[in-house]
Amino acid sequence: MAKVKYHYNPETLSYTQITPKKGTYLKRSLLIILALLLNGFLGFLILSSFVSSPKEKTLKRELENMKLNYTLLEKLSEEHAQRLSELENRDDKIYRQFFEAAPIPEDIRNAGYGGVNRYRSLQGFNNSTMITELTKKMDKLSNKIVVQSKSLDDIIEMAAKKEEMLASIPAIQPVKKEELTRMASGYGMRMHPILKIRKMHEGMDFVAKKGTPIYATGNGTVTRAERSKTFGNVVYIDHGYGYETVYAHMSKIATRKGKKVKRGDLIGYVGSTGRSVSSHLHYEVHKNGRPVNPVYFYYGDLTPEEFAAMQKAAEQDTQSLD
Q1: Same domain assignment for residues 136 and 215
Q2: Pairing of strands 260-261, 198-201
Q3: Do 75 and 42 lie in a common domain?
Q4: Alpha-carbon distance 263 to 170, whole Å?
């Protein structure tokens, strides 16, 4: 029940009941309600600035976790970038140099991604800078991994070719060292035993008994297996990569034209056919059509001491046998 209010009249010395105007209670009630709502809203704002709701707490935890993950991911990307940089250095300074291949240009290794708006979707957030920079780093790292992967594929292919080349290049003596009598004459100007003039001796003469086996010094294809006036029974082997070997004065040929041979395959026997004064093998190595000193192509079966002794004997100015 609402309180009844009275007004004292000093002239009449009496109290008169105060009758509220229509709408006064309603206005007061509305003002009270609005005041309560305003106080509640202000209180909520003040309270919410100090106390988080369960949902806000969850979102904050997720945000902090994402920041931590981004930090860890950035650190991990830097570690991977460092390891990749070390691999790139070995690739350019060791692997590609070994296979005589040019290093990969830096502008190709460090190529970025084009497009002004490539990272536009990452803008407009509180952590846009951090996210954008990390994304750029990951894109660059991905590109460098692709380039390095392609380079390693190239190296594998070059290694396979290098292995084939190493098997093809002449690398052993054509006559086993156990079966040699001596190395009679080396590469260079020598006195010819028949013509009695000094002329260029374009190979090496290995003295051995007639019938001593002669072996291919590298993988290749027999291009000639015939008899000539000068070399007698002679075999030519094309090893590829610009290399060719010649085996002359054989007593008997043990191969044929067009045959594929491997290093160490039997191709004939020592003799003295053609323009020769005694039983021996005249052996030549050609590179790109020009004769070269065969003494440098025995690294496959000579010790350093044996090589030094053969090199010394080859340098003696002795008479050739053909």
Answers
A1: no
A2: unpaired
A3: no
A4: 8
Q: Are 265 and 216 in contact (CB under 8 A)?
A: yes
Total domains in the chain come to: 3
Is 220 a domain residue? yes
Prediction pTM value = 0.53
Question: Domain for residue 248, yes or no?
Answer: yes
Torsion angle defined by CA atoms of residues 77, 81, 84 and 85, in that order, rounded to the nearest 10 degrees: -170
Rounded distance, CA 148 to CA 71, Å?
26
Identify whether the C-beta of residue 155 lies closer than 8 Å to the C-beta of residue 164: no
How far is it, in rounded angstroms, from Cα 77 to Cα 74?
5
Cα 234 to Cα 250: distance, rounded to the nearest angstrom: 6
> Do 206 and 283 contact (CB within 8 A), yes or no?
yes
CA distance 110 to 136: 12
Q: What is the CA radius of gyration of the chain?
A: 48
Return the DSSP state at 246.
Answer: E
One domain, residues 184 and 161: no
181/289 same-domain check = yes
Question: Residue 246: which domain range?
Answer: 177-314
In a domain, 61, yes or no: no
The rounded distance, in Å, linking the Cα atoms of 92 and 283 is 39
Query: Hey, which of 48-52, 192-196, 303-307 has the most confident mean pLDDT?
Result: 303-307
* Single-letter amino acid code for the residue at 95: Y
The answer on pLDDT for 20 being more than 70 is no
CATH number for the domain spanning 286: value is 2.70.70.10
Residue 319 has pLDDT above 60, yes or no: no
